[in-house]
Known about the structure:
Strand content: 25-35%
Distance between the termini: 27 Å
Number of helices: 6
Oligomer: single chain
Largest sheet: 7 strands, mixed
Low-confidence stretches: none
Mean pLDDT: 92
Structural class: alpha/beta
Number of strands: 11
Helix content: 25-40%
Strand order of the largest sheet: 5-4-1-6-10-7-11
Shape: globular
Radius of gyration: 17 Å
Amino acid sequence: xxxxxxxxxxxxxxxxxxxxxxxxxxxxxxxxxxxxxxxxxxxxxxxxxxxxxxxxxxxxxxxxxxxxxxxxxxxxxxxxxxxxxxxxxxxxxxxxxxxxxxxxxxxxxxxxxxxxxxxxxxxxxxxxxxxxxxxxxxxxxxxxxxxxxxxxxxxxxxxxxxxxxxxxxxxxxxxxxxxxxxxxxxxxxxxxxxxxxxxxxxxxxxxxxxxxxxxxxxxxxxxxxxxxxx
Length: 230
């Protein structure tokens, strides 16, 4: 990996979801003394190669986020932009605000507050080698297929299965080209790896040794705060 001072990375935190399964806005829910989005922000601010941070959020809660960001002491540029109707559109809005001189773009779910800065660095190292890399972990549970009535219809081998996480980091050229293509073709994607693979680019998966779940249900907030703050 190049010296951190020589790498220019723009990071996009996607926090524009509706939080339907939570029943309330998880973005500002507390884990310990910090909100979910604060933990994600701080993880990326701990990486010196992040030159600007773009947070994509529901426009209704943007003023609340602005109040929070204004209290953060950092030399890193932080922008707040409105999310779109889908994840694809939200990421596209974020890509419009990246530093055009950046070498790489890191895209992260704002609702994954336990991301360890060490894992961000590891994913970037692989993105430098392959052009595209993403955090993930092997599937260890037995996976079954079910019909509409939740009746098991078969098994799926977990041998080659990985659960995808974020961050997902790409060279600026690869991710901007991929998004240009899927927007033009009207293709929906659930993550950026899917967009990049649609363009025929390989993606390296980086095994995450640290817990990195996505806040989805209220009980998720009971997990202890990220250990890198200790």
